[in-house]
Design brief:
This protein is an alpha/beta fold and 204 residues long. The chain has nine helices and eight strands. The chain has helices at residues 21-24, 37-40, 43-47, 79-87, 99-107, 117-130, 159-167, 171-176, 179-192, and strands spanning 6-9, 11-14, 64-67, 91-94, 111-113, 136-139, 144-146, 152-154. The strands form two sheets. A four-stranded antiparallel beta sheet has the order 1-6-7-8, with no helix packed on it. The chain has a four-stranded parallel beta sheet with strand order 2-3-4-5.
Length: 204
């Protein structure tokens, strides 16, 4: 997956609570042989007669999404993250996340940020007031968000999650980093317990 160090661009405010994965990526769009994830993203909301935030030209390809509580709830649908990535989203700042969605985001190189409760309202107000007119900067190295006008918000993330994002390592890559140690263990197990490697003959 792509490394995440610093992301800079518009922050699109979608201040709605309990946005579920079927709203983010409706299931009927996933049945195609080769789904168009960008088209699928919030497809039902975008079809309604309203001025949807991600359809505004100033938020085209916006890398930062600002959301409400319990973002990504519902089914364990990884394609919801893929649809957001197809739009260009690399960071989601929400009041809270579904645990499963948060894990899917991290495993695909998308940074989920949950600010301290005391900071959430003021950050959302800045994102709403700026309305795409100036860029925000999310710095994972320093673990800060720089807002237009100079306001800075700190956030925290577990060290192992931060390291994986900074290095662009998914679960497979993290496992392969220990390939030599795994091979050594396998060889040792083969020598010490060879019977475990024997495949019993098929009967009949």
């Amino acid at each position: 997956m792509d490394k995440f160090q610093i992301v800079r661009g518009p922050a699109a405010p979608l201040l709605v609570d309990d946005v579920d994965t079927d709203q983010i990526a409706p299931v009927q769009y996933m049945r195609a042989l080769e789904p168009d994830y960008r088209v699928a993203l919030f497809a039902r909301w975008r079809a309604a007669p309203q001025d949807f935030v991600l359809d505004k030209p100033r938020f085209s390809g916006a890398p930062i999404l600002v959301a409400g509580r319990n973002f990504g709830c519902g089914s364990a649908r990884e394609v919801a993250v893929w649809a957001l990535m197809a739009h260009g989203v690399r960071c989601i700042v929400a009041r809270s996340f579904s645990d499963v969605f948060r894990e899917s985001a991290l495993k695909n190189g998308v940074l989920p940020v949950q600010l301290d409760a005391a900071d959430q309202g003021s950050f959302e107000a800045i994102a709403t007031d700026v309305d795409g007119a100036a860029p925000f900067e999310v710095d994972l190295v320093k673990q800060i968000i720089q807002c237009p006008g100079g306001r800075v918000y700190a956030f925290s993330i577990a060290p192992h999650e931060r390291a994986a994002l900074l290095q662009g390592l998914d679960d497979v890559a993290l496992t392969m980093a220990y390939a030599a140690r795994i091979a050594a263990w396998e060889e040792g197990a083969l020598q010490e317990q060879p019977w475990l490697q024997r495949v019993p003959p098929r009967k009949g």
